[in-house]
Amino acid sequence: MKKGIHHHQIGDSIELYLLIKNVKKGTASNGKPFLTLQMSDKTGEIDAKLWSVSPEDEATFVSSVIVHVQGEIQDFRGMRQLKIKAIRPTSGMDQVRHGDFLPSAPLSPEEMLERVTQYIFEMSNPKLQRITRHLFKKHQDKFLQSPAATKNHHEYVAGLAYHVVSMLDLAKAMVNLYPSLDQDLLYAGVILHDLGKVRELSGPLVSEYTTEGKLLGHITLMVNEIEEAAKELEIEGEEVLVLQHLVLSHHGKGEWGSPKAPLIKEAEILHMIDNIDAKMNMMDRALERVMPGEFSERIFPMDNRSFYKPTFHAPPIEY
Amino acid sequence: MKKGIHHHQIGDSIELYLLIKNVKKGTASNGKPFLTLQMSDKTGEIDAKLWSVSPEDEATFVSSVIVHVQGEIQDFRGMRQLKIKAIRPTSGMDQVRHGDFLPSAPLSPEEMLERVTQYIFEMSNPKLQRITRHLFKKHQDKFLQSPAATKNHHEYVAGLAYHVVSMLDLAKAMVNLYPSLDQDLLYAGVILHDLGKVRELSGPLVSEYTTEGKLLGHITLMVNEIEEAAKELEIEGEEVLVLQHLVLSHHGKGEWGSPKAPLIKEAEILHMIDNIDAKMNMMDRALERVMPGEFSERIFPMDNRSFYKPTFHAPPIEY
Amino acid sequence: MKKGIHHHQIGDSIELYLLIKNVKKGTASNGKPFLTLQMSDKTGEIDAKLWSVSPEDEATFVSSVIVHVQGEIQDFRGMRQLKIKAIRPTSGMDQVRHGDFLPSAPLSPEEMLERVTQYIFEMSNPKLQRITRHLFKKHQDKFLQSPAATKNHHEYVAGLAYHVVSMLDLAKAMVNLYPSLDQDLLYAGVILHDLGKVRELSGPLVSEYTTEGKLLGHITLMVNEIEEAAKELEIEGEEVLVLQHLVLSHHGKGEWGSPKAPLIKEAEILHMIDNIDAKMNMMDRALERVMPGEFSERIFPMDNRSFYKPTFHAPPIEY
Amino acid sequence: MKKGIHHHQIGDSIELYLLIKNVKKGTASNGKPFLTLQMSDKTGEIDAKLWSVSPEDEATFVSSVIVHVQGEIQDFRGMRQLKIKAIRPTSGMDQVRHGDFLPSAPLSPEEMLERVTQYIFEMSNPKLQRITRHLFKKHQDKFLQSPAATKNHHEYVAGLAYHVVSMLDLAKAMVNLYPSLDQDLLYAGVILHDLGKVRELSGPLVSEYTTEGKLLGHITLMVNEIEEAAKELEIEGEEVLVLQHLVLSHHGKGEWGSPKAPLIKEAEILHMIDNIDAKMNMMDRALERVMPGEFSERIFPMDNRSFYKPTFHAPPIEY
Amino acid sequence: MKKGIHHHQIGDSIELYLLIKNVKKGTASNGKPFLTLQMSDKTGEIDAKLWSVSPEDEATFVSSVIVHVQGEIQDFRGMRQLKIKAIRPTSGMDQVRHGDFLPSAPLSPEEMLERVTQYIFEMSNPKLQRITRHLFKKHQDKFLQSPAATKNHHEYVAGLAYHVVSMLDLAKAMVNLYPSLDQDLLYAGVILHDLGKVRELSGPLVSEYTTEGKLLGHITLMVNEIEEAAKELEIEGEEVLVLQHLVLSHHGKGEWGSPKAPLIKEAEILHMIDNIDAKMNMMDRALERVMPGEFSERIFPMDNRSFYKPTFHAPPIEY
Amino acid sequence: MKKGIHHHQIGDSIELYLLIKNVKKGTASNGKPFLTLQMSDKTGEIDAKLWSVSPEDEATFVSSVIVHVQGEIQDFRGMRQLKIKAIRPTSGMDQVRHGDFLPSAPLSPEEMLERVTQYIFEMSNPKLQRITRHLFKKHQDKFLQSPAATKNHHEYVAGLAYHVVSMLDLAKAMVNLYPSLDQDLLYAGVILHDLGKVRELSGPLVSEYTTEGKLLGHITLMVNEIEEAAKELEIEGEEVLVLQHLVLSHHGKGEWGSPKAPLIKEAEILHMIDNIDAKMNMMDRALERVMPGEFSERIFPMDNRSFYKPTFHAPPIEY
């Protein structure tokens, strides 16, 4: 199989199919319009300028179109940029599909669905189990498509599901090591904590914040839904309140979007597990692009740090 | 009428009825048990020690009991303290009632009810009006009794109602000065913003945080209730979302308990009006106790500042 | 009447008179000099590039010149930019005046002067009244021209006067609602609080900081002037000190430029009124440019927030 | 077996052996000297006052003495305090040993030694393994006795060893879940990260900071030792530098005592594992003392939060 | 000569003359009034309780009275406290004077006056020289008595003068090392920077903040005076403005009380010199009380640090 | 002698030899590659664009090459930029040497070596003296070449040595003014505090951080070396620990890279002397480029302040 865009280095000539994810129009210093195309395949992304475009070009090269491109990878202020030599939109003849260009989770939707279902099945507190199952089923389809965030970590198709499955595995390990933890509460918290993102974000391909996402946020949206679910399922008892607290507090503190800090042990652990899985994902992605002995690019949400890959660690697989 | 406890100074001998608000037991350095009584009447509070108490004393002098006390006001580390010379519980003979000892709002419950009702009546957006009326009626009784906070500002019977009425008057003045403001939205926000406190706090006399108050807080509780109210009243439209945002954001930012900062003009103004009325209340109470040319005691939630009463301002009425 | 620059959208062809507010020279990537013109009329501002300029162009298109322009409004990184097709300086023939191009306060200077004078007239404390009148008269002419700030809020001709008049109206409403406030002190504080800006800023058209503005600032300059005014008017008494404190503390705390936090009730209220009026102005201006259902551009001094205009609010008048 | 001090409640009369951990002398308000005794057994601690002490009492009741006490548990400002009715030092007749009164790790020193040794054995990078083994052996005896901190978490005999063993188990689980992690580096980091505490703290029973602990701290002390160990073992290569970085950065950032933030993936994970294990320990200890439906006492190093034990969780075993 | 109070240790019996600096009345747990006396001589301070006082005692033992005391130095929560055995007020017979009990600067007022005068004489810029001389002469008497602060550093009679003389010496050394510095400006800044304290603080013996000290502060007071002095002396030119800036900015930034940060090189250096001399004074005083190998008591304004005296440094002279 | 690049202003035509310090490649908006050359001589730096470069150009104009350039100085966004008219690499014929183009310290290496040696000679504590001499000799050659930082202050050849010599002179002045200071400890601290930079930074010409510089930093590297030096020289005693503490704490606090704040008087003074000398250097360099009455460019590490040169100060020498 052909190498993806991520595997090419500065100086390479390339000829590839790429998906246009985003287009911005500008005016060059010679006064002519140009387009900045943000393009990607499953392996990564690259930007390119399309100079002196005609109105037809503007109508052709729009978001979601798959194009065939020839060009050369250059350096632009320390970032890779594609210098386009030839570009055309694809047709049925090219036999390419959108699904081939979107990065996605390492597990299939079916597998992830099965694993979450299995975790719900293992819960023994019927109140927590029923609320969790109810809300999970309600949003299951979008859950299996949604990214976990618009950027930073797990920002790909089904990224949210993959993030949750990883966290469930980590939760299971924690429960084994620290038996005082309430397994059911922790599993329920993991499954529901970010489920409000299916309403906060607009969708899998072009993720943007919805109005209710901006004005209330995924945390408040899901706390509301737990309330309603309990009403609908006629469930009473402190489990409802406690589960709402877990979702409410999972960002850890006020500055990070949680109006209440975790005040229950499993809430604190949920916050930490969430953190670990997000950071592992960010560090892995940054480090898999650099050779041993090099520093990665900066990771903004991790205090803008650049991570070092020791010389005694393995190089990336593709090289 | 007799002077209240607030109007006595260090050195005064007093003979008064007082309500016991809180009792703590301790052991004196001679090994004997003593009680610290926190007592109040409508004008203020004072602490007193009851030394070498018997088990009967402990059973007699408990929270909510009205007592008749003789003693002298002394200075204890810069605070007034009552040195008890004689103390006895009251009986029917004394003809005293709890209501006489609780500080309360300057307006009667009936008057405050009428004024809030009038403001609701003036609203012209039917969706905002119906949700506001529905939730206000639901919690009306507790609303007319609840303090606005456990301490700091408006912490007396019906303090919440008085705070809301003052804010409504201020909102009306603001709408007149800045006609671009949406009057209905601002009124609705003012009436509902702290209504969740009837669930967050335990009640008018001994205000403590409830478990749901600690785990979710009055903001989240009311956002949930707006959602339900809209369902129940079959109201749809952005008004529901926007009103939830006003309640959600009225603390201004994450560190202060709002998971979203105000993103709507009326939400920002609601936050500022809330602030002004709370601060006016705190400053007025601190300054009415000092003479011109003096500094007040420190006000903790206002950066622990001590305020100055200029010499050309009037002395407190009671002196 | 013709639509102003603010009322045109991306894609519009325009033909307008505009005032050049600022010019920067640069070198294009082809090595040729170009000018970046910041132009405005009463309704708003727009930037434009003038490519490949000759030395004559550079001498012609300078700050304060009124030009006639033809062009098209384009998008440049999310901001509107004017693509110039033709541009010429105006002459007497064009019958245009500077005053027509500067945004200014909604009230006439005469009206604002009368209103401030009326407020001073209403003061009953003769010491505060005399100092306020003396300093107001001294700087009256510049006061009626000065912007309230170089950017952010009320940054137009007579913006300072309009800001002060609005604050006085708000102060009056506050005094009515909270009768414990000292009306005279509050009015005096409002009128003098920013009066030092007539020395801190260079003037109405091209507002920059003066050297004494940078080294001392408008707060210290006015505190000095109150001292001198009291000397000159032979006024003694705590009013002088208290009024200096109001001006000194009106930014609220050290980080914001006030060496003393407000320690007098009216000083705290002055700070809050100042805040409200500035924020109302910023939010109104940002929101009047967007349609219902949209978010405004970010407002930097309000924590860089972008405000939402609910769908049930009215669209801007011009559309 | 008899209940320990921790299992008694306010109001209980007790008769117990206790170890004096700390003694402070004071003067009562009647002018007589008294002692404040901090006493403990394996289950917990309690304070007591010994009034009107003679010089002989002062010489008898000193730190490290085991005493036999009769008394009653009382409430003192929300804390339990022991009112002493009778107290005497113990002799050989009492058949009590210091070891019976010191709280200690749930695992025996032998078991912990074996488990750390096993983890070292599992390492496959010989450089990391040799340095780790060398330093571990060097400090092994003190390591098996030292607390993990003077207060807050694992502050008991062998608390450091138990903390490290728990972290190793957690590290192993993490390596299984995230195979990109370098197991050897993580294990080495866990074993060495706090080993400098054997020099920073004075010893197991009365832990205080040493002068080198205060002036350099355990982090710098261990980084120095890794350098020396590598020299002594004639080990070269980046492993030495990277291992020093792990120890150096394990507090996460400058404010928390690490001059470098983690810049290697395993360093970041080491920091997070350390955090989790310390917090689990603090929360477990706080919660095991409260009944379901109650809030724990505040945990200072966790932002002074008080944690809630849900009503559907089990009560403490002892009740 | 007899040893001062500072030179006695816990356990010592003492018989001394002491000055009462401050008295607080309290009520003991047996219900009787007692006095807390803060007493001092030139070498230091000590607190004592006077139990069960009569009204005559309260009238006798007041602030500024010199007493003869017998007693024993005891430990109270880590602080030395004097247990009084006998105490009486002094009369003419005792031949003691207030001046003997106040700590004061190491140099005589005459010497300090001469040295400041000499520095003013060395200035060659006549404008700076005349303003400095004018203001120095105006406040010279109080300047030679005032402490530099109410606590923390140089808080003794003439502490301000000693602080200024030390800073002038340091300024001279700096000017020699960095010849680009403007000597005159720096000298003027040093002499005037804290001169406003003669108005901010009430006096040498019982230093408290005056009302104008609290509402405006010594910085603003002196900036005002420089303005007036220039008017009176008919001095114009940027020197006036620049000198005001030096005084205004000498606390370094807003949080520390300077509305403008230093924007002139000499202003920055003035701020640093001020800092160094204050810190040297605080560290010296803390360290001269401890033996080599010990840590000093904590110094609150230096981040509450406790400083170490290395074992190879000399012990305090008195031991 | 010819004027250097620093002495030319916008609009000047120049013909000069310059050293290429850094080269970045980019792609112009016309799609052609261009180079951004960062060039310097002893007096300063300037950037230039080289448009439409050929592969030969790219191979010719690389870092460390000395070129002969003709061009014009233009303004680019407020910065000077060189518009190249002709450029060629130099050959032996041009008789230019690298040393002529690198800014360097005002003192010769020999002189600085002699002065540091003299200060070491003056030390009387043999332990401190031997460790200092040993480490200084070990790194002496690099020390005399290294910059003190990659940017901000003393970032030129031998900048580190010049910074240390200035600090030693300042230390000597301090010791004279405050005789309680330990001269030897302070000298040793000054000489060693930044010596680890010879390992942290890559070298004099193109200073970058080394891997050990990034992962451990110059502070930890030197603390390690002091440990080793003491071992090697068989020196024992608290001097070793105390000297390590001085180096460890010289950045003042955690956020600034010191895991321990200064806890010894000389450590605090070392931190302050370091600060003063760095700031004097930054302010002098910024101010020597502006005329009296102007503000300098912003100095980022000094809170981004812009400093004012008073009108009564002298203009730069070159004008």
UniProtKB/TrEMBL annotation, chains A, B, C, D, E, F:
Residues making up the signal peptide according to the UniProt record: none
Enzyme class: hydrolase
EC number: 3.1.-.-
InterPro entries in the record: HD/PDEase_dom, HD_domain, NA-bd_OB-fold, YhaM_exoribonuc/phosphodiest
A Gene Ontology molecular function term of the record: hydrolase activity
Keyword line: Hydrolase
Domain annotation HD: ranges: 163-279
Alphabetical list of Gene3D superfamilies matching this protein: Hypothetical protein af1432, Nucleic acid-binding proteins
Protein name as catalogued: 3'-5' exoribonuclease
